[in-house]
Every structure is written in C-alpha cells, then in structure tokens.
Amino acid sequence: MIDFEVRARDGFARIGRFSTPHGVVETPALLPVVHPDPRHQSILPSEIAGKFGLPAIITSSYIAWRSPPLKERGEREGIHRLLGFSGPVFTDSGAFQQHAYGHVEVTPGEILNFQGRIGSDIAAVLDVFGEPDASATEARRAVELTIERARVAREQRTGLLAVPVQGGLFPELRWKSADAASGFGDVLAIGGVVPLLEQYRFADLARVLLAARPALAPERAVHLFGTGHPITFAFAALFGVDLFDSAAYHKFARRGSLLFPEGTLALEDVREPFCGCRLCEECSLTSIAGLPPTEREVAIARHNLWMCATEVRRVRQAIRAGALWELVERRASGHPALLAGLRAAVKGSSVFLPVEPDSRPSFREVTETSRSRPAVARFQERLTRWRSSKGLFQMCPRVPLTPHYLGEIPARGPNGEELQWEVLTPAGPVPLELSEVYPVGVWVGPDEFERPPKDLRASATVRENPVLNAPAHSQRVADWTRRQISALLAWQYPGHSLPLDESGLRGIRSRSTGRLRELAYRNQPAFRVGNDGLPRPTWIGAGLLHQAVQPPRLRVIVRDDAVPFVREGRSLFSRFAGAADPEIVPGASVLLVDREDRLLAVGRAELAAHEIGRLTRGAAVVVTAHARNPVPGAEMTRDRAALAEP
Questions:
Q1: Distance (Å, rounded) from C-alpha 594 to C-alpha 566?
Q2: 329/323 Cα distance (integer angstroms)
Q3: Are 255 and 236 in contact (CB under 8 A)?
Q4: Is 270 exposed, middle or buried (0-12, 13-18, 19+ CB in 10 A)?
Q5: DSSP strand E in 38-166: where?
Q6: Of 43, 108, 391, 570, which has the fewest beta carbons less than 10 angstroms from its beta carbon?
Q7: How far apart are CA 14 and CA 17, in angstroms?
Q8: Dihedral angle of Cα 623, 624, 627, 629, to the nearest 10 degrees
Q9: In the chain, which residues fall in CATH 2.30.130.10?
Q10: CB < 8 Å & 24+ apart, contacts of 633-642
C-alpha cells in the first residue's frame, strides 16, 4: 500500500512524497521515458539522475519482454542493473503499443509477473487502451476489462501497482473507472489520453480530468500518461496530477525541435542564443545546429530534458506559493489550444471547490479566465447568500477600511437606520465591510493601473490629527468597526452566536496602517485578522467558537490515542483523525475536539474534509494555539491596546 504524504498544496496540486523499494519519490515528479536497451537511449539513465536531478524514471516492460536478450538479462539482473539506474523505476505494460500497433502478444498475467521478476518499483496493469473517439459501447468494454484485470492484478501483486483509468470522452465511464481504480491501485494512471495530447485537444483533456477527479482516492498518487511537453505540466498539476512521463524530450530531438515551457521551436529557426539554461551555456543553440547529426540530437535532447525538469520545479514552486492558477494562465497564453483547455477547466469550477484553499497570499489577474477561478466562484456564491438578508445597497468609492476614510462614510441615516454601502471590485459589487476579504482584498489586476482610483478625500481634520482622535469621525469609525467585525465573523463563521454586544468583541487597529488587525475579548486577543482579511481564532477565540457553533461545524475529532499530544500542541496526523466537518477546506481554521466535544486545540487544516483520516502519513491539522500556548505573539495586543475601538 502506498504511503502518500501531502507536504504542501494548492488546491488539487500537491507537494507530496511516497516510498518505493529504491527510494522516495517527491511529487510532482517527472519520470523521463527511457528505452530498456541503453544503446537506444540518447541520454543515459545515470545521467538523468546525476546531471538533471531526476531521481525516478519509467520504461516499457513490454519492449523488454519481447526482446529475448533484454528479457533474459532483466530477469537475471533486474531492471535497475539493466538500465544502470539505482532509483525508483516505473514500468509500463504495453498498453501504448496496443494503441500504436493494434495488439500485443503478451497476456495481462504474463506481463504483470514479468514486471515482478525484474523488480519494478511500480508495476502497471495491462489495460485496454480506450481511444478518445471510441463509441460508448467500446469505451464501456475497455473500462470493464481494465477493472477486471486490475482486480486480478491486485490479488497477485504485493508491491506498488499502477491501475489505469479509462473511459474515453464519456464522463460517467471516467468516473466509474476512477472509482474502481481507487480500490485497487496505489498509482491511479489516467490513460487513453495520448491522442488528445498529440492533437492539442486540451479542452477534451480538461473534461476527462474533471470527470475522473472527484472519484480518484486522495491517498493515492495520480499519473497522467503522455504529459511529455513542458507546456502541459502546470495544466496537469492543476487537476492533482502527481507524476508526469516524458518521451517528448528525445522524440522532439529527433525532429530537430526544441522544447520550452511556452511552446516548441525548430532548431533551424533559431537565430539568437537566447536560452540561458546550463546546458545551452555549454553549447549555445546557434552552435548546436553545426554539430554532426548524432551529437546534435543528443544536445537537443539534453536541452529538452533540462526544460522539462526546470518546468516541474517551477510548478512545485508555484504550488508552495499558492500561485499555480497564475502559472497555468501564463502557460495558456502560449497556445490557443491550452487556453481552450483552461476555459473548460474553469467551467468545471465546482469540482475544485472541496479542495480550494481558504485563502492565498495574493490574487493576480493574468488572463480572461482569472475572474472565473474557483476562488472567485466560491466568493460570489457565498456573497449571494450573505447579501440575501440585507436591504438595498448604495455605491460608494472603494477605499481602505481605515479610520482615515471610514470617518467620511456615514454608517447610519438621519433616522438611525444602517446604510448599506457597496464598492465595485473586479469580482463585482461587494459590501464595503467585506472589501478586504480574499480574493478581492488581495486582488491585483490591470484595472487599477489603467486609471487612478476614485478615493474619497479625507478632511483636513482627519489628516492633521492622530488616527481615531478626530471627534467628528470617531462615532462613524466606531460604527463601521462594529459592522466590519460583525460582517467578517458572519462571513467566516456563518450561523455563529459570538458575543457582539458592548461587552463582547471589539476591534483593534494597526497603529501604522489603521487596518483592523485583531478582535479582542475582555482585553485578550480572540481573533487575528491577516492580510486575507479573515479572522483566525486564538485559543480564546476558539473557546468562543466552541460555545457559539454547534457540532459538527468547524470540528475535527481527535482519536483517543492522540488526545494527549494534541492537547500539548502537537499537530494532528491524518491517521489519528476521526470525523470532520464536511465543509472544511485546506487552510481553514478548525477546532480539535475529543469524542466528548471537549476542546483540545485550534489549528489550520492541511487537508480537505474528505481527505482527513484517509492519508496514512502527514498532518491533517497543524495546531496554532492551545491551552498552554493560548496566544502566540500576545505582546502585540498590549502594544496596540490604545487603538481599541470604543
């Protein structure tokens, strides 16, 4: 059984790791395709590991099986010695040859047993390749035969097993195949898509992935067969693909084509030595053209593989930074077909919502699809619910929610009634109180650079006096602060009964910026407000939420054997987690409780609700506060106490 661990994430995309008999695979990982006979390989496997820093590879067990010398040596020495490679080796089973040539001579049992005899770290089931344009009857047959072969293979193999997911372009069959594969496989390999990739049918590929994704078990690694071009890596990672295999680096080299993350360029069209990769510094692109044919092919293959390896690292960085959607949009601008795929992806935003992070550090608008990202779709859906109980809104200029400006905006009408104000944002009209909440609060787009913002001009009284010391403005500021607190808590913790009267929560603003940074309860910090505009509970706030929100809301139950550790501030590991609120998403603040609903700690969810308890390794919730360390950084509250609102 695979021991997949999630270490960082951005939606479905995961920085993860799992163990094999020949080492750990860190994902997203590029598995260069190598020929089982090194004499047919432009770059030796040993060089792939040493020079390119790629610790795992994939090869065809079927090609080795049908070549008597390779078969005999593989069975005698093992696949690792045959290839001259000491790291993890994934073997394919011959399904691609079935697609290319119409048949294979080996049976599913024979090729599976052969993969075991040669010591494959991850063996693949010989599936039935479902052609993308196959009929429903043909696609259904491919799925049923593949499921049956996977069931038999699981009974026969104790090591890691890759089970392909078939189904053609039929969403219900893709879902069925993915669901069945999740019960048998350690690696779930999306198959039957090579023609889509070769024909640049990225919109169809997106629909295939959207159909399969909800049924893929979160505790398994996901592989997408044929993702060889670096332009596709970020797009595939968006759907949670952990493993890419690339034969493109040497296939394109044979054609004299150079791979880049932005697309492909024929060597004959290169006029400038513009590539600054390490390999091209040794031999520039303009110099490669003058090499003998064999040397030229090897040089191009090395450049291509370096581009592939670098792009995977760039994808990993984007995942860690919470910026994968931005990277995908930049890549989509490189080819209309990929943009069509991205459009299809955002149309399926609902598939992403269970794992869409609570917030991200920033939101940069890159292309036309930026305003349709899952983060925006969720924000607008929640905003519709939030506004349903409000009256009519009036439009006002978008301003920072600081005393400098809030004192200029009347919070109440002449009869004491609350005035509802909204501001125009890239996501549409938003109530003023929520205009600093993710994603609109951290949104950076072209609109703000095309014309000066229409801000209110603060009066001379406010400009010349310290924040909150202008008598004419203090009551308005106090009213707006209470309204902002109420709105933020209702937004983040709907249905709560937190104390919001005069004796309850009050706002504390930053001395330097005037922005709301903390909610205090009885002069103790209860919630921190970050740059995403969302209130995160301290231990004191967790206690208030525990009383104000009924179970199972916001809660993750801790198994008895982990209760003492969590109470001391240790992270809750997934295997020690019980039931969880089904609405928990990564990054959300959660209450850790025992089976009697006694509060143990408060923390940040690392996994989505449906993932908690299913992964056998890694943290489900990182504890941020507990009884013995109730308020990390509590001294900040004392320093800003003078800014507390009345």
A1: 10
A2: 10
A3: no
A4: middle
A5: 57-60, 89-92, 122-124, 160-165
A6: 391
A7: 9
A8: 120
A9: 539-626
A10: 634/524, 634/525, 636/518, 636/525, 637/508, 637/518, 637/520, 637/524, 637/525, 639/511, 640/508, 640/509, 640/510, 640/511, 640/517, 640/518, 641/508, 641/523, 642/511
441-459 tens-digit pLDDT: 999 999 888 866 554 444 4
What is the arrangement of strands in the sheet containing 535-537, beginning at the earlier edge strand? 505-509, 516-521, 524-529, 535-537
Q: What is the pLDDT of residue 631?
A: 65
pLDDT at residue 637 in the model: 39
The pLDDT, as a whole number, for residue 502 is 67
pLDDT at 467 > cutoff 60: no
Q: What integer pLDDT is reported at residue 646 of this predicted model?
A: 29
Model confidence at 523: pLDDT above 50: yes
The DSSP secondary structure of 16-59, one letter per residue, reads EEEEETTEEEEESEEEEEE-SSGGG-SS-HHHHHHTT----EEE
Mean predicted confidence (pLDDT) in 606-623: 97
How far is it, in rounded angstroms, from Cα 114 to Cα 82? 14
Phi, psi of 524 (to 5 degrees): -120, 140
- Provide, for the chain, the percentages of residues in helix, strand and coil under a 3-state DSSP scheme, each rounded to the nearest 5: 40, 20, 35
Give the CA count within 13 Å in the CB-facing half-sphere of 466: 7
Looking at 3.20.20.105, 3.40.50.300, 3.30.70.980, 3.40.50.10780, the CATH number of the domain 5-347 comes to: 3.20.20.105
User: Catalytic residue numbers?
Assistant: 92
| Token pair belonging to 128 | 């039935």
Q: Please give, one letter per residue, the 3-state secondary structure of 601-615.
A: EEEEECCCCCCCCCC
- How many secondary structure helices (H) and strands (E) does the chain include? 26, 28
Beta strand spans in 268-420 (E): 363-364, 394-395
In CATH, the number for domain 539-626 is 2.30.130.10
Question: Whole-model pTM above 0.85?
Answer: yes
Question: Which amino acid, one-letter code, is at 345?
Answer: A
Cβ neighbours around 439 below 10 Å, total: 23
Cite the residue boundaries of each domain of the chain with CATH code 3.20.20.105.
5-347
Which pairing describes strands 363-364 and 443-444: parallel, antiparallel, or unpaired? parallel
Q: Rounded CA gap, 524 and 502, in Å?
A: 15
137-152 burial code (b ≥16 CB/10 A, e <16): eebbebbbbbbebbee
Encode burial over 564-582: b for 16+ CB neighbours within 10 A, e otherwise: ebbbebbbbbbebbbebbe
Which pair of tokens denotes residue 326?
């931005």
Q: Tokens 């989509």 appear where?
A: 332
Separation of alpha carbons 163 and 220, rounded Å = 11
Mean pLDDT of 634-639: 39
Who's near 54: CB < 8 A, 6+ residues apart?
Answer: 29, 30, 31, 32, 48, 305, 309
DSSP structure class, residue 415 = T
CA distances from 355 to 93, 190, 242 (A): 32, 20, 16
β-strand partners of 606: none
Q: Contact 231/262 with Cβ under 8 angstroms?
A: yes
* Token pair recorded at residue 579: 């039931």
CA dist 572 and 569 (Å) reads 9
Provide the 3-class DSSP secondary structure of residue 394: strand
